[in-house]
Amino acid sequence: MSNQRLANVFQRCKAEGRAALVGYLTAGDPDPETSLKLMLAMAERCDILEIGMPFSDPMADGPVIQAASERALEAGTRITDVFEITQAVRQAFPELGIVLMGYANIPYTMGFETFAEQANNVGADGLLVVDVPPEEGHICDDILATHGLDRILLLSPTSTDERIKLACDNGSGFIYYVSLTGITGADMGDVSEIQAKTAHIQSMTDMPVCVGFGVKTPDQAAAVGAFADGVVVGSHFVSQITSNSGEQAICAALSASASAMKEAIHGAAT
Ligand SMILES: O=P(O)(O)OC[C@@H](O)[C@@H](O)c1c[nH]c2ccccc12
């Protein structure tokens, strides 16, 4: 059973007539201590925080998020640090949606059971494991459900109806529509095509559909937020960590850019 927190987030946003803002940062970037402060700054402005578990071979990620993983690992970030950060964010923001995102290697090595139990204990609501597709769900679906974690599944422009159905039947929390066939941080594709595919997926499920990959400006967030149930922004936020120096400046930049994204989404609400 899902813990309902993600469902509540989308319900609240819907009541306000707007899409949810989903912000991504890699845990431990640039180091665990600073990372917590950055996460807290983001949590204040986002509806859902997607917390990345740093991994040495993040094959779905572009250069910006790859470098974030490298910084975090270089600074000694371990899964225990990821859980500690998650717990501290949860304590400060009881209503925030929190999704742990990463590659199968980490939960697989720990054992999905142990991983899911700990993720739930520290207050995560869902898990996005990029490289465990719905076809492989037997590895973790039941375990996640037992531990109250939603299983976030990805769809892409090339997903067939059969695959959309599979993801909708096996996923929970929300569907993550990857707007392009590429890696994180790429340039966003044609908005009307993204809108058409999003609407098609929405017609096949009651779950909220969040759209991510390539959203870098408030205008793009507004355009996507006008039809999606949630807008995911990753690389744009992560890039603030290297384009500003010092913890305070990075926090201020993240707050400002998350506020700008949120306001743009609000403005686009019908
Ligand atoms: O960075 P972008 O283009 O804004 O895309 C969001 C993305 O970063 C975040 O959701 C994410 C980071 N790593 C991923 C791997 C797979 C799917 C999603 C992700």
From TrEMBL:
GO MF: tryptophan synthase activity
GO CC field: cytosol
Domain of life where this protein originates: Bacteria
Entry's EC annotation: 4.2.1.20
InterPro entries in alphabetical order: Aldolase_TIM (IPR013785), RibuloseP-bd_barrel (IPR011060), Trp_synthase_alpha_AS (IPR018204), Trp_synthase_suA (IPR002028)
Recorded metabolic or biological pathway in which this protein acts: Amino-acid biosynthesis; L-tryptophan biosynthesis; L-tryptophan from chorismate: step 5/5
UniProt-annotated catalytic positions: E50 (proton acceptor), D61 (proton acceptor)
Keyword terms: Amino-acid biosynthesis, Aromatic amino acid biosynthesis, Lyase, Tryptophan biosynthesis
Catalytic activity: (1S,2R)-1-C-(indol-3-yl)glycerol 3-phosphate + L-serine = D-glyceraldehyde 3-phosphate + L-tryptophan + H2O
Presence of keyword NAD: no
PANTHER family associated with the record: TRYPTOPHAN SYNTHASE ALPHA CHAIN, CHLOROPLASTIC (PTHR43406:SF1), TRYPTOPHAN SYNTHASE, ALPHA CHAIN (PTHR43406)
Function summary: The alpha subunit is responsible for the aldol cleavage of indoleglycerol phosphate to indole and glyceraldehyde 3-phosphate.
Protein family per UniProt: Belongs to the TrpA family.
Self-association state and partner proteins as the record states: Tetramer of two alpha and two beta chains.
Name under which the protein is recorded: Tryptophan synthase alpha chain
